[in-house]
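Quick start: read one record
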Amino acid sequence: SASTSSRLDAIRSVYGASVVRDLIEIKVSYEDAADSIFKMDGYISNANYVAKKITMILFINDRLVDCTALKRAIEFVYSATLPQASKPFIYMSIHLPSEHVDVNIHPTKKEVSLLNQERIIETIRNAIEEKLMNSNTTRIFQTQALNLSGIAQANPQKDKVSEASMSGTKSQKIPVSQMVRTDPRNPSGRLHTYWHGQSSNLEKKFDLVSVRNVVRSRRNQKDAGDLSSRHELLVEIDSSFHPGLLDIVKNCTYVGLADEAFALIQHNTRLYLVNVVNISKELMYQQALCRFGNFNAIQLSEPAPLQELLVMALKDDELMSDEKDDEKLEIAEVNTEILKENAEMINEYFSIHIDQDGK
């Protein structure tokens, strides 16, 4: 630009008169402390300026540079004033001692960092915020004039046609498939109205016994599925379960442990204290009945000694805490022999293989 032109003239020639119209002047100086001396002057956009991208022209000691921290702070101030997705226009010139500017941030030396940068940015941010608050008393909104001459010259017969079409639409019933779901309380706004021929399938409810029979037929279970005693136990479970408790356990959200035995779960808006030990025992019991004769076998890299496992279980059992170690070992040996004698049945029903060595 020419040497006689001002900063506003330079901005007007590059960015247009519409930008200059919404600019306000700002000046800040800080000379109280020797390590934070700086002067800033420039122009910032007011609340009427709207743009999709921020425009920030920053000169430090008459050199065009970038300062990411300062740019983010200014954007944060404007976010409370401008409409959403609108960005400001900033022209700023800062003067401070050259030894307070670090130009070795980027290879191009365009990005700079300042000594006491946080204090300087805070001072500039407060000044911009004060300017915006004082200039935000009025807002300008662009409007478009309505062309009344075109409406007056329109064919008056169009009004009759529109009236006839309006009366026809009132009497004509709109198909449900063409409606927009707006209110679930309205019968036409309920979701199931838009399902065609699927309601009957969705309303089918299978009891636990029928579902179990389908799964059993798919798994091709062994003769164990036909045991009358097992079937009676399954029927007893199906007939004695509590629907409310089943819904809580099925649709709960785990919160956390309360102590060694109790845990917190949430169902809807209520919290429940659950005995983890008791519910785990019941779960394992029902799992054993449902999968009786069809357990998945897991092969260990090294067979586990059965007698040692029984001793470990006896040591952890609170009811056996008063017994001596010799007595626990004797109990483990007796039970090991019983399990070895029934190894074939255990393998068939529970898929647990026990060899002659008790492993």
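The chain has 14 helices and ten strands.
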